[in-house]
Amino acid sequence: MSVAALLALAAAVCFAVALILTQYGLRTMPSWRSPLYSICGSAILAWFFAILFVDPATFQTRAALIFAAVGVVFPVVVSILSVRSNEKLGPAVAGAVGNVTPLFAVLGAVVFLDERLGYGRMAGLALVIAGVALLALRGGAGGRRWPLWVLLLPLCAAMIRGAVQPAIKTGLGLWHEPMAATAIGYTMSTIMILLLVGRRAWRAGPADRRGVFWFTGVGLFNGSATFLLYAALGLGSITVVAPLVALFPLIAVVLSFFFLKGEKMHPIGLAGMVVSVVGVIVLLVAR
Q: CA 30, CA 200: separation in Å to the nearest integer?
């Protein structure tokens, strides 16, 4: 297995853990306020490591501008949509419905970066997406019910998450510093979230300390996942990285079964896991 594939799988694990922690945090803090702490926490962590490990002499203005432009929408908009969809759908289904991300990411890579998608990888990608789609069916994970429009929340998040990957890969081609990309992106997202809800949070008064604790943890895992995703994109093709990162709903299903009493694993969810695992195997061995 390549280094890029390992990094992508590690990113998937971190994204899944963040989904589970979000459920704990939502018990003590309203969803509109939570990105303040998750995004700001990620930004602080990213800058800490960027100062330690990034050589300022290698700075590339064009790449930094790309990372900043991405940061205006990612992760801030995705974080807002993810928390809301997590609140309505639960972590497993929210992640599953949103994981048409590889479709947007791979399409962008083929169109704008001239990446090749062979028949083997096409089959693996299709299996991964089919597997996570099974989890999105009502009753596939947990006993929740929701209005149809709620599905637009994770779908929009997936579109943004997939669309930014070709842009990030372009920026990393100019300046191969995933940690700098993470720090710059999260700085812009921090500014955006402060503009969006900062005044409302100030008027609402101090937040519950338990919520701050949980969503700071969400930020640490999301920030780590973003860095790992960027590192994987810098080393491997989007056609491999995007589907592997898309496995995080499957990991969330397993974690939900053990840590969230309200979430249950059903046969249709287990079928989705099997199909996706087969897809990963095909993807990794295909050319």
A: 12
Q: Work out the angle at residue 6's Cα, subtended by the Cα atoms of residues 92 and 219, and round it to the nearest 5 degrees.
A: 50
Residue 111, pLDDT > 90, answer no
Q: Can you tell me whether residue 265 is helix, strand or coil? A: strand
Given a contact cutoff of 8 angstroms between Cβ atoms, the answer to whether 108 and 238 are in contact is: yes
User: What does the pLDDT average to over 36-63?
Assistant: 94
As for how many domains the chain has, the answer is: 1
Residue 144's nearest CA partner among 89, 95, 97, 85 is: 89
Q: Tokens representing 253?
A: 């299903």
60-85 as b/e: b if 16+ CB within 10 A: beebbebbbbbbebbbbbbbbbbbbb
Cβ atoms 94, 154 nearer than 8 A: yes
Q: Which residues constitute the domain of residue 240?
A: 3-285
Give per-residue pLDDT as tens, 173-200: 999 999 999 999 999 999 999 999 999 9
Query: For the purposes of burial, counting CB atoms within 10 Å of the CB of 245, is it exposed (0-12), middle (13-18) or buried (19 or more)?
Result: buried
